[in-house]
Amino acid sequence: MEVKEIISSGILELYATGLASSEEAAQVLQWTSQYPEVAEELAQIETGLAIYVNTHSIQPSPSVKDKVFARINDVEAETAKVVPFKNSKSDGVAKVVSIFSLWKRIAVAAVVLLLGSAALNILLYNKNNKISSALQQSQQLVSSLEDKSQSMESDLQVVQSKYSMPVSLSGLEAAPDAAAKVFWMKNTGDVYVDPSSLPSAPKGKQYELWAIVDGQPVNAGIIITTKKGDRYSIQKMKTFGKVDAFAISMEPENPTPATKPTTVVVMGKM
Question: Buried b vs exposed e over 184-196: b needs ≥16 C-beta within 10 Å?
Answer without folding.
Answer: bbeeeebbbbbbe
